[in-house]
Write a structure and sequence with these properties.
elongated; about 90 residues; mainly alpha
Length: about 90
């Protein structure tokens, strides 16, 4: 119940902000109303795409970290054998 109320409140806030900004810039109630309706539609459409993009970025970062850890564990430094030490 609280989640639904919060979501409804957020939608109302977004619509109010979109309306207010458009009204201040244009002085038109009609354009303010259009912005108030289009803004939530754009958010609902674009937010899943935004989330997918960031999920791909997160997966790439984790893969790079895992790869770096694998490379680091495969290249552990061991002391050189006496025959490998060369005088300069």
């Amino acid at each position: 119940m609280v989640t639904a109320a919060k979501t409804t409140s957020q939608i109302g806030m977004h619509m109010g902000v979109a309306f207010g900004i458009m009204y201040v810039f244009t002085g038109s109630l009609a354009l303010g109303g259009i912005a108030a309706v289009l803004e939530p539609i754009a958010n609902v459409t674009l937010l899943p795409l935004h989330d997918k993009l960031w999920e791909r970025i997160r997966a790439r970062v984790e893969a790079r970290k895992a790869n770096a850890a694998t490379v680091a564990s495969n290249t552990t430094s061991s002391p050189a054998a006496p025959e490998q030490i060369q005088a300069v």
